[in-house]
Amino acid sequence: MAGSSAVHGSAERIGYITRVQSFSACHRLHSIHLTDKDNKEVYGKCNNPNGHGHNYKVEVTVRGKIDPVTGMVMNLTDLKKCIEEVIMIPLDHKNLDKDVPYFASVVSTTENVAVYIWDNMAKVLPPNLLYEIKIYETDKNIVVYRGE
Ligand SMILES: Nc1nc2c(c(=O)[nH]1)N=C([C@H](O)[C@H](O)COP(=O)(O)OP(=O)(O)OP(=O)(O)O)CN2
Ligand SMILES: [Zn+2]
């Protein structure tokens, strides 16, 4: 049918594609803006100076036009390279608070890890493609950040 071929050939289709990446890191929840006493009260066991570790799982989602020629929003192989640069090299097997300069003054909550990943992914991806960063800190603790 002529109508349906026109839709498939020219209408703009928007797709969402996601790549999942796991990384391991340790951290301690501690705010430089709080006293030691208040840190203990706010963060409880997570303020323990010895820190603790997580096997984080991150889902990076991009949203964009499905290119009618390539059939892709973006090449997932390119997204994989961005994730290596932004997540794996700086964060995997690291102490977030000591090894990542950003977290020297920013508490390493999963919310802030999501913001860190968003800001750095936005720098390496084509403009306006990044849609969502979702982090599973544990199976039960999940954070979503969409750049708002
Ligand atoms: N809003 C946030 N709250 C908490 C964060 C965070 O990133 N954002 N992080 C933590 C700790 O890092 C901690 O690792 C998680 O604590 P908790 O939920 O107590 O740990 P579990 O999920 O392992 O606990 P279960 O015993 O399995 O319920 C705390 N809060
Ligand atoms: Zn933690």
What does the secondary structure layout of this molecule look like, with pairings?
Layout: H1 2-10, E1 14-27, H2 36-43, E2 52-65, H3 76-91, E3 94-95, H4 96-99, H5 110-124, E4 130-136, E5 142-145
Helix pairs in contact: 3-5
Bound molecules: the ligand Nc1nc2c(c(=O)[nH]1)N=C([C@H](O)[C@H](O)COP(=O)(O)OP(=O)(O)OP(=O)(O)O)CN2 and zinc ion (ZN).
Zinc ion binds at residues 27, 46, 52, 54.
Can you tag this structure with a few keywords?
alpha+beta; Tetrahydropterin Synthase, Chain A; binds ligand LPXRUNBV; binds zinc ion; PTPS_Cys_AS
How would you describe what is shown here?
The structure is a single chain. The protein has one domain (13-145): Tetrahydropterin Synthase, Chain A. It contains five helices and five strands. It has helices at residues 2-10, 36-43, 76-91, 96-99, 110-124, and strands at 14-27, 52-65, 94-95, 130-136, 142-145. The chain has a five-stranded mixed beta sheet with strand order 3-1-2-4-5. The longest helix is centred in the middle third of the chain and has 16 residues, at 76-91. The model is unreliable at 1-7 (pLDDT under 50). The protein binds the ligand Nc1nc2c(c(=O)[nH]1)N=C([C@H](O)[C@H](O)COP(=O)(O)OP(=O)(O)OP(=O)(O)O)CN2 and zinc ion (ZN). The site of the ligand Nc1nc2c(c(=O)[nH]1)N=C([C@H](O)[C@H](O)COP(=O)(O)OP(=O)(O)OP(=O)(O)O)CN2 has 10 residues, from helix 5.
